[in-house]
């Protein structure tokens, strides 16, 4: 009887030790992942040459939209779409747009008429989206975390050094610009 209890006790200790080590290993990996992001400076570096870690900028961005590089023919912005939020239905008549999802997930909608979307695709981390000029589109965050994306416009869509802290600021600025 004592031998059986001793074996059970040792087995339990081994299992608990293994679980504790796995938790410690997982915490170390998570800690390492969070430490890998370098601190970034949010400003528009264009039109000067610029080389940077695009993921660091995208995942650390907390604004709805901030331009990181604006040239004469192309622009890159980072965006953070809050849980339950969206980019807002829009169309750029003469601008092709590229989006890449770095964190979160959502649904990309596109169509040829305002309010009529005949294209719908689920997107998540590492997905790329190409939006042709003249397509109505909207990206909706249906995840439980902010949707972190970067956007490349060609030609430029927003003024140099654009910062929109909220979607409302972005809409107001768009209405003022056009």
UniProtKB/TrEMBL annotation:
Every Cupin type-2 domain range: 78-153
PROSITE patterns cross-referenced by the UniProt entry: PROKAR_LIPOPROTEIN
Leader sequence segment: 1-23
InterPro entries from the UniProt entry: Cupin_2, Flavonoid_dioxygenase-like, RmlC-like_jellyroll, RmlC_Cupin_sf
UniProt KW keywords: Signal
CDD domains associated with the record: cupin_Bh2720-like
Pfam family, one: Cupin_2
SUPFAM superfamilies for this protein: RmlC-like cupins (SSF51182)
Keyword Signal: yes
Protein's recorded name: Cupin domain protein
